[in-house]
Amino acid sequence: MNVTANVSSRINLMRIVLISGIVFVHIPFDTDSSPFHGAYGLFDWLRVFLRDSLFRVGVPCLSAISGYLLFRHGSTSLDYGKTVRRKAKTVLLPFLLWNSVFFLFVLILQNRGIGDGYIPNLTSASPRMLATLLFAVEGTPIDLPLYFLRDLFVCILLSPLLAMLIRRYPLPTLVCLLLLAALPVSLGIVLRNSILFSFSFGIYLSLHRIDLTIIDRYAVPVASAFLILAVLLASACYMTGPELPAWLEFSRDLMVLAGIPGFWALSAILIKSRLARRLAETGSLSFWIFCAHYPLLFCLFVLWNRSGEDLYPVFYLLAAAITLTVLPLTNGLARSALPSFYNLLTGSRMRPSAGVLTANGRQTTSE
């Protein structure tokens, strides 16, 4: 596998692994089933490890990938108008479609007295709250993970300014954005400052032509250090949560950003396996899982609570297994039966898989 093909495959591998991991971040629980009660011992610690430590790096890693791919041909080749129009189709439109459909679904359920308490009551919400739940104006949308698409589109709108600053003043720009990501400061333009930093970091890697494989020779120690940090962070959160002290919040935010090189080092190790290379060829499946997993988890949690069962570990394992089984199946069915509609929902991501070379021998990677 040549360097370009290796990087392309690893980017696609990180997408599917991280987005599958984000499923564990969003498996719902209530006050009685909080992992910080410690009712299930090691199992609860594992929930904190997956939710509050290991896979919290998912969104920063994904935004770094987006920034890198946007400028992989240099800033001079970027047609801003064309890029914004294309990203409106591949990022903004799927956000609006998925979020609006889930909004209507929840509204129908709540009108029938189902699902109350899990999501804000839409029938009594103020116009301001409804605007936020629909369009993520001031906070997270009703399909919570889609805040990433909202912030990503904002970063794309800001990309010429970010590229100029990073080209001329790379270190001061990144340090400033890193501090904003780690400190509880609201900029008012993005919902998560960490996305702005990691997107800009991806731009830096592209514009300054950083060799992404330079870390490969240190992949084992870097990946090991990241996993050890994740274990230590999870243990600290488990012992002090759910309300974390300020120093731990700060450490968690910095550690989340450290996941960018950490997971990239892990990808260098994992891509050597046949299973990882097959996962890297799943194409638009990762985007489908990202957009659809939260509504499915919501439905499963509503059904679970109506069943009267109270052994939460059973729900947790079933929810993860069902989500990571059903969504690949529905992805394949939708792609085959309704290709045009599927293309709308996935932002025109029906493209050749990561392992396919174009006619001129270059590796392709969808953005």
Describe this structure in words.
67% of the residues lie in helices and 0% in strands. The chain has 14 helices and no strands. It has helices at residues 3-25, 42-52, 58-70, 80-111, 127-135, 147-168, 170-182, 193-207, 219-240, 246-270, 274-279, 285-307, 312-337, 339-345. Helix 1 packs across helix 10, helix 3 packs across helix 6 (147-168) and helix 3 packs parallel to helix 8.
Notable traits:
disordered C terminus, globular, single chain, mainly alpha, 367 residues
Q: Strand percentage, roughly?
A: under 5%
Q: Which overall shape is indicated by the principal axes computed on the Cα atoms?
A: globular
Alpha-carbon distance between the two ends = 21 Å
In oligomeric terms, what are we looking at? single chain
What is the β-strand count? 0
Count every helix, treating DSSP H or I runs of 4 or more residues as helices.
14
Please state the CA-atom Rg, rounded to the nearest Å. Answer: 20 Å
List the secondary-structure elements in sequence, H or E. Answer: HHHHHHHHHHHHHH
Helix content: 55-70%
Mean pLDDT: 90
- Structural class comes to mainly alpha
Largest sheet: none
- Spans of at least 5 consecutive residues with low confidence: 352-366
